Fold:
Amino acid sequence: MKKGLVLEGGAMRGLFTSGILDVFMENDIPFDGIVGVSAGAAFGCNYKSNQPGRVIRYNLKYINDPRYFSLRSLIKTGDYFGAEFCFHEIPEKLDVFDAATFESSDMEFFVVCTDVETGKAIYKRIQKVGHEELEWIRASSSMPLAAKIVRIGEHKLMDGGLADSIPLRFFQHMGYDKNVVILTRPEDYVKAPSKTLPIIKKTMKMYPEFIKTVERRPEMYHKQLEYVKMQEQIGSAYVIKPPKALPIGYIDKNPDLIKETYEIGRIVGRKHLENVKEFLEL
Structure:
């Protein structure tokens, strides 16, 4: 039986996920593999490197540094979240990512990106931590209008959540038959069409398949929620979600809200801990 961890994105809502993951790490909850989307990838990689506390630490330390994320960074570099600072300087120098532990772990780790030319999801297994691998994680987190297209080899990539927000089916196809799914939206959430769609259509008009994917995202997302619920009912998935809408905004810089969202995750993680152990047959 392969045990998987499926992590939805959500930018700063991912701090909820990181609170849960820290509780799991502190209690030695093992998984055979992780698949993360956007913030789920950027924060979830710390599970494989076994670094509880790292996500909340560097977010609080650098949240007001304009190189981390700011309008200035967007204007200056084309990326709201500073590409070099967030995805290279922090993990390589300022709050070092434990690449040795990541690479020595048997746990599989996948990130989801969207190919802008085809509009389809690409699933990339990350086995080591070098510049290109960090770029795949950046690509998974690169939202339209808030980031540039990330070019890696022949691929032109953006936010994985556009093509596959909750990649449970993918992990099941990879042989993971018991999956813990962590969502960042509450039970009653309804995804509306993007308010920025008209602008995306203008700025990305050379990528018609990508635009179709963005247009279809609300429908895709709700179908995925239905599938997740069905898998939960038959006992192949254990789903964790916020009890209500999280207090933090998509790109919120308020340190108090950062800490609050993370602590909500820890509370929820502790609440589900014993049930997760039972689900995973630990």
